[in-house]
Specification:
The structure is a single chain. The chain is mainly α. It has a domain at 33-50 and 73-165. It has helices at 2-13, 31-46, 54-75, 80-116, 126-165. The protein starts with a helix and ends with a helix.
């Protein structure tokens, strides 16, 4: 979680590209597109277990930096209500999925470091592997739920708001 917040701080410090606050028509996104992108992120986070946490750290920082784009949008004209309606329905599941997958991605490297430091008798136990797989499964389930909500609820809210601003 600390790495995620580091990404938020980095995103706040780095020069930002001003987001376009006018909603355009990329609302033709569907569940397959959203799910594929979300699962790609989760798999990258989980793969840190086999890459000594490097892909997990990179992805958490990137996701934290991306979160600052939402804050930048808020500061550049969108109302709090708009941002809340565009993010809250699916973010309730997506952000915990990212954090849980991050924890899973660091789990195995953490246990190996503990073994190398002499704090464990063996590098990985069945319990360590079971905990990793449980965290991975929970994060995948949450990201699937988040993608479904994003495709079927959040996008409908965005379309309705777009139609109301265009006078349709």
């Amino acid at each position: 979680m600390t790495v995620y917040f580091i990404g938020i701080i980095v995103g706040l410090v780095l020069p930002q590209v001003k987001p376009n606050t006018k909603i355009q028509e990329p609302l033709k996104l569907g569940l397959p597109f959203i799910l594929k992108n979300n699962l790609r992120s989760i798999i990258l986070l989980l793969s840190g277990a086999f890459l000594f946490g490097s892909s997990t750290a990179f992805n958490l920082v990137f996701n934290g930096m991306f979160l600052t784009l939402i804050a930048e949008a808020f500061l550049s004209g969108l109302t709090f209500n708009d941002i809340f309606l565009f993010t809250a329905p699916h973010a309730i599941f997506e952000i915990p999925a990212i954090i849980i997958a991050g924890a899973a991605g660091f789990k195995i490297p953490y246990e190996i470091v503990r073994y190398l430091a002499g704090k464990k008798d063996q590098p990985l136990t069945k319990e360590d592997i079971k905990e990793y797989l449980t965290l991975a499964l929970i994060s995948i389930i949450l990201i699937v739920i988040a993608a479904w909500i994003e495709a079927n609820v959040t996008l409908q809210i965005a379309k309705a708001m777009l139609n109301s601003t265009n006078g349709v």
